[in-house]
Structures are given as C-alpha cells and as structure tokens.
Amino acid sequence: MALVIAIAAIACSSKASGDKQAKNAAATMTALPVDVKIVAASNIEQSEVVAGSIVANRVVDITGELPKKISIVFFRDGSFVEAGQALYKLQDSDIKARIRQLDAEMNLAIVNEKRLSELLRTESVRREEYDIALARLQSLQAQKELLEVELSKTVIKAPFSGLIGISKVFTGSFVTPGVPLVSLVEQQVMKIQFSVSEKYISVVRPGSKIYFTTELNSQVATAVVVSTDASLDVQSRNIIVQAQFSNAGNKYKPGMSARVSFNTSTKNEKSIMLPTEALILGGDGYSVFVVRNGVAKLTPVVIGNRNESEAVIKSGLQSGDSVMISNTLRAADGAPVSVVSYK
C-alpha cells in the first residue's frame, strides 16, 4: 500500500513540474520580439521648412509725365542701368521755343523795370507804374521756371540702379502720363517672401537669419529678416515675412521659388529624439510603447518638430526609457515582449 502511495505522489509531482515548464515555455513563445531604443535628452537644433518666393527689393514701372512723342531710346532691352541714367528722350522743340520767347519778353521786362526804378527815385513815375513792371518781370521769371521744369521732364531717367526690362515703346511712339514704358528691377539686393504660422512669430523676427535654396541653385544661401506684415491672415493664421540678401553675380531673379528653413530651437535646448517608426497615432494624439520588466506599456507623448525619420519628443518620456521601435503594430498595452536588440 505504501508503495502505491509513493508511486502516485511521484506521478503527481512530475505532472505539476511538466505543467509549469509548459506554461513557462508558452509564455516564452508568446513574448513579442522587439527592438528598443534607450532614449536620452541631448542638445538639438530644430528647424522648420516652408516654401517661399524671391521678390525684387525694389521694382518700378517707368512712366512719363508729359503727353509727347519719344525721340530717343537710350538703353538696350535687358541691360543694367545706373541710377540717374537717361532712359528716354521726349520731343522738346515746342518747350524750347516757348523758353526763347520768354527770354525775349524777360529782357524787355528787365530793361523796363530798371528804367522805372530809376525814375521812381526821382519821383518821375508813380509807385503803381513801377509795381506793375516788377510784377510783369516776376511773372515771366516764374513762367520760365515752369517751362524749365517741364523741359527736364522730357528726359526720363532711372530712379535707381538695376536691370531694365523690355521697352513697350519705341522712337516715334506717342506716350501719355502714367502709361508704363518699361520696368526696372533692383538686382544687387533682393528679398525672399514667405509665410509662417503664428507660433513662429517670436522666432522669425527682424534681424534673425533664414536659409534657402532654389531649383536652380542647391547651395544654401543666407538671408536676414527685415520685415513682417502688420497682421496675420485670419483664415490661415499665418504672417508674411520678408528677408533680404545680397544678389552677387545676379544668380537670382524675381519670381523664383525658394525652399526656406529657419531655426526654431532656443540656445542649449535639450530634447529627446525618437525614430518616427516608434510613434503610434491615436484619437488623442501620439503614443509609444515603453518596455518595463518585459512588458510593453502604452505611453502618451507630445511631439514637436518631425521629419521623415525622426521626431522631437517634448514630453511623456524621460532619459533612460526603453522605447519599442519595431513590431509596434503587433503590440498591445501590457503585452509581454522580448528585447532582441538595443539601438
């Protein structure tokens, strides 16, 4: 009888041990193999990239102020002109003729004014006669000054140095005041215009630097912010910004597209960088799986800037946390995991 009891006890013990090993094996087999990254805060430089356009620092449509015919076109289309350089000459023969006529009348008026002035000293004429002669002389002088101003307007000059466009008029064309004759664009200095979200107003301010490239030039160039619009767009909540740069070599032209980037981080700012494959998008934002004691724990995080490969974690993680960066779609909160490698 004792022998039978002993055999039964040994059999039960063997079965219990086998069940425990089976459970352990099953647990080991169901643990999800994952790669993890041990995160740490470090100094980073965050930047934002937006689209922009190159615009002229100054551009003007050259117009005339007198209704006259063009007698000379001084420039070649598409050439560089200096400030004050003559661009067009309008016919001025009628104005010069009127000036010569006034000169003759003025000579006679000067003689008459001097004669009456001498007679006035001897009281040979009345004061009224002299005053009429003096007023006549002053009126002729004023008329001549007006004609000289009008004559100066027959030469149309460049208000600043820059690249002249294609002339819309030619020698013999009749032009009227206010009608554009040609455009002039300042080339030495240009601007980049772009818009940014309201959250970057304190970052992109006058004096700060931005960086840009174009389709034709992949070399990174620098510009300095010189102005921002007075108000934000009520629809997009964006504000227009203009940055100025030197256009040495005339490599850039107005209308070119530009890829603009600017720094959004503060000096010595520390943040955690995490591969984007670790992020899980949910209804309340982003989360990650943090591995603790062999278990995946779903942890909400707040992200800042991100690109295709990395994201800045603003809150939710601490230095030293082990974050899953693989098999995140197969994991569940509280599920057992087996760490395969550390990145």
Automatic annotation (TrEMBL):
In this protein, which residues make up the domain named YknX-like C-terminal permuted SH3-like? 272-339
Q: What GO molecular function annotations does the UniProt record carry, in alphabetical order?
A: efflux transmembrane transporter activity
Q: Domain CusB-like beta-barrel: where?
A: 192-265
The record's Gene Ontology cellular component field reads: efflux pump complex
Question: Which domain of life does the UniProt lineage start with?
Answer: Bacteria
Please list the coiled coil stretches.
Answer: 130-157
What keywords sit in the KW lines? Answer: Coiled coil
Give the family per the record: Belongs to the membrane fusion protein (MFP) (TC 8.A.1) family.
NCBIfam families to which the protein is assigned, alphabetical = RND_mfp
Descriptive protein name = Efflux RND transporter periplasmic adaptor subunit
Lineage, please? Answer: Bacteria, Pseudomonadati, Bacteroidota, Chitinophagia, Chitinophagales
